[in-house]
Amino acid sequence: MGKITNEELLRRLDEKFGGTVVQTGADFGLLTVETSVDAIIDVLSFLKNDEALRFIFLTDITAIHYPESEKPIGVIYHLHSLTTNTRIRVKVFMPLDNVHIPTATTLWDGANWMERETYDFFGVIFDGHPDLRRILNVDDMTVFPMRREYPLEDPNRVDKKDYFFGR
C-alpha cells in the first residue's frame, strides 16, 4: 500500500465529516486540519479505524496557547499511519473559560501520559481520562506554566541589568 496524498486524505475526511474538518496548512508536506471539540473523537476514530487510512500510531498530544486569540487554547494530535507512511496533524481550539475536551485514551492507551502532561502544563481537562493529575510538576502547583500568562523573565533579577552589559 502506497502513501496517501494529502488531497486523498482531505477528500475522505470531507466525505465523512463535511465541513467540520478543514485544512489549515501542509507545511513540509504534513497535512494540518482543524476540527471542533464535539467532533474530535469521531475524527480521530475515523483516522485510526478506516481500513484505507489506518492512523494507528498516536505520535504525540500537546497544546498551544495564543493569548490574543478568541479561542486561545489549542490541543494538537500528531498521528502516523505505519501502513501507508503518512502523517497528519489535527488541531482543536477552545476558549479559556471552557478547556474541556474528550479523552483519546478510549482510542489509544498511550494517550494517557500525553494527556496528563498537556493538563499539567496547559490546564486542558480531558473528560473521561482515567487518572487526570499532574505528571511532572508538583501536585500542589496552582498555575499552568506553559500558558503565556506570566513575564518571560523575573524583572527583579540583578544579573540582567543593562549596566552589566555596557548599555
Structure description:
The chain has one domain: NADH:ubiquinone oxidoreductase Nqo5 subunit (Beta Polymerase, domain 2), CATH 3.30.460. It has helices at 6-17, 40-49, 111-122, and strands at residues 22-25, 31-35, 57-65, 73-81, 86-94, 100-102, 125-127. Helix 3 links the parallel strand 6 and strand 7. Strands 1-2-5-4-3 form a 5-stranded mixed β-sheet. A two-stranded parallel ribbon has the order 6-7. It is globular. It has 167 residues and is an alpha/beta fold. 20% of the residues lie in helices and 25% in strands.
Give a summary of the structure in a few sentences.
Helices cover 20% and strands 25% of the residues. The chain is built from 3 helices and 7 strands.
Layout of helices and strands:
Elements: H1 6-17, E1 22-25, E2 31-35, H2 40-49, E3 57-65, E4 73-81, E5 86-94, E6 100-102, H3 111-122, E7 125-127
Parallel strand pairs: 2-5, 6-7
Antiparallel strand pairs: 1-2, 3-4, 4-5
Strand order of the largest sheet: 1-2-5-4-3
- Summarize the amount of helix as a percent range: 10-25%
Class by SSE composition:
alpha/beta
- State Rg: 19 Å
- The CA-CA distance between the termini, in Å, is 62 Å
Keywords:
alpha/beta, 167 residues, Beta Polymerase, domain 2, two-stranded parallel ribbon, single chain
